[in-house]
Amino acid sequence: MPSSAISRDSKEAVTFRGEGALSRLDVVLPKYKNILLFNDANGFQPCGAADYFQQVETELKGRIRIQYVPYEGKALPIEDIEAKYREVKSNTDVDVIIAVGGGTIIDLVKIISIAYSNNCEKAEEVLTDKELKNRLDLIFIPTTAGTGSEATSFAVVYKDKIKFSVDNQSLLPDTIVLDPLLLKSLPVPVLNSTVLDALAQGIESTWAKGATNESREYSKQAISLILDNIDKENSLNRLEKLQLASHFAGKAINISKTTLPHSISYPMTSHFDVPHGIAVFLTLPKVAELNYYTNEHTLQPGVQLSDIKESFSLLFSFFQVDTIDQLVEKLHEVIVKLKFKTRLRDYGIKRKDLSFLAAHALTKGRSDNNPRNVDSNTILKILEEIY
Length: 387
Ligand SMILES: [Fe+2]
What we know:
By secondary structure, the protein is of the alpha/beta class. The protein has helices at about 50-60, 80-90, 105-115, 125-130, 190-205, 215-230, 235-255, 260-270, 275-290, 305-320, 325-335, 355-360, 375-385; strands at about 15, 35-40, 65-70, 95-100, 135-140, 155-160, 160-165, 175-180. It folds into 2 domains: about 15-185, Rossmann fold (3-Layer(aba) Sandwich); about 190-385, Dehydroquinate synthase-like - alpha domain (Dehydroquinate synthase-like, alpha domain). Helix 2 (about 80-90) crosses helix 3 (about 105-115) and helix 6 (about 215-230) packs antiparallel against helix 7.
């Protein structure tokens, strides 16, 4: 286990970007001896990263050791994290953890890095002890264009199907690789659902109670890159732009955090397996309307009506529309364009499940970051409208 306590707060990651950026790790990897490499079991080989790391091992033979840890789950239950933690716990003196995959793999690494750094008996301790910090070097290599988790200090985990968020500055990585070649083998529906997540994150970040000028600048970049590329034929250039959009959306929510659509999405994903990006986007148009029509009685404490007005005037300009109806129409067009269905019943959710979903949809730190104050009755109404 690592012994030195290094302060890792407020550090800036080195980011390698563009086609072939993965090979720029050639200059980084030789400084490590013992590597844990968590990867998406289904995507690691097809995306080309497996070959790259095998080649590195051959070239640095005897000087570097890599333990590969594949994972194929979608949402991240704590039991799965415990199982993966047990696989790596006895590997002593690890000096870096690499994540190659989507948000789930990166979030898995975030939890395990803290557990490993503190020699925790169980990874679950990370969910309750806020004092624990990561002390390992981290390299994040996203292979989707969605969560932007490589740019955030938090991880989403489920315990008994309830969402937990671990938020710790020590989880920001040392190195990020944004290589569009890694996205080439991604199945189109997976790519599209991750794009929905990135777009939702950009939109929610714009109206979030926690928004700042800086986060809104990142949101603007993310939304513009997605809207400019959504209709284009898939190409390396398009993938590069979508990957960058996802990264900017991650940077935006790292400052502002997400809001109500994310909050409502968590029980949809944990109980009904709705992919994260789709689950978030299903309620997004309705929440946009709801937030737009906020009055002084429904404002979230700490938010002014002028803040909401300002955030919608920004969103209208990003989407090049003049009214809330046009914005909602555009959001519907996006989900249809990406070939997803728009009603809850299309995803195996029954009418009798709606009150259960509404009762589990208020997540601390997310629903109370929404500019409009909402209760579970309001959420139930939204769910009924999109059922
Ligand atoms: Fe998300």
